[in-house]
Design a protein that fits this description.
alpha/beta, elongated, 18% strand, six-stranded mixed sheet
Amino acid sequence: LDPGGARAAPPMRDMIARAARLGIGIVGSFHELGPMPSQEGVTTALRRCCLGGAAAVAKFVGVASEPSHALLVHSAAAAAELPVPHIALAMGPFGRMSRVLNATLTPVTHPLLPAAAAPGQLSVAEITAVRRSLGYLPSKEFFLFGTPTKHSPSPAIHNAGFEANGCGHTYGTVETDEVSVALEAIRKPSFGGGSITIPLKEALLPHADELSEAATVIGAINTLTRAADGRLLADNTDWVGIRNLLAAGLRQRHGGAAPAELCALVLGAGGTARAACHALRQLGAAQLYVFNRTREKAEALGAAFDAVPLSGDLDAAVGGLPQLHLLVSCIPGSAGGAPSDA
């Protein structure tokens, strides 16, 4: 809505009142197509665009005849100290920087369009590229913690996602089995979050400020997130991936219905094994067995998930089971240990 003199007219007042009743946000907009006003003039125009408190966004658009006009509209908007978000743009080639600096509802074009809708309009990719190069984008560091991580595809996947979305974030690895080394990276102000792999899924759990329900039940984590207030949030999504893959396999093998007395075996006793036990219980496993070379670890995991602990010779343990529908190995492939007939 143009906040000029017509805003006092009954039709304008009626439109504003109706929009308020319907929950529609109004952009109070002023376009100056003549010479660029002074900074004070732009500030005054933006304040008028608030429509006496009725506008959800105030917008000023002028025409830049020199590069400094892009900074002028940005500075004027800051000086206005508006009670609502603002759009402050300078049209034309000299005003392109105003589109980089503008933070609310910036109009953009697209390479597939035959022409820009307004002089000086940029694409999202062009704006984010400039913002990234100047350090204007939020930039956090994300890591994969644990060992081995050298062959993990996580950095390539996450960095490709950050790049595609115009983020300034980075994702790397911290190859370690030491909690103290991981905490050194986690405690940096630039830390945004991370993924946890063996052998730190249980060891890092006590250092989180808040655990998700899944992380609490499982007793292990695979995801850390730094919240806006600085708290370190921990979650476990391993069990979701395990459950979904097993459920798909059961549907394929058993025609959509799992066996009435589903019997499952988990190899290992670490954080991933705990997630697997939780996933199997969520699938409705009636009989759950856990195997580990160390009897005490098998017993501890069995007690946590009401499972039968097994140890000793794996082939003998598997051979002694009355039936077995699912086997989940949570030990590194390099460690061997799979049943000989698996």
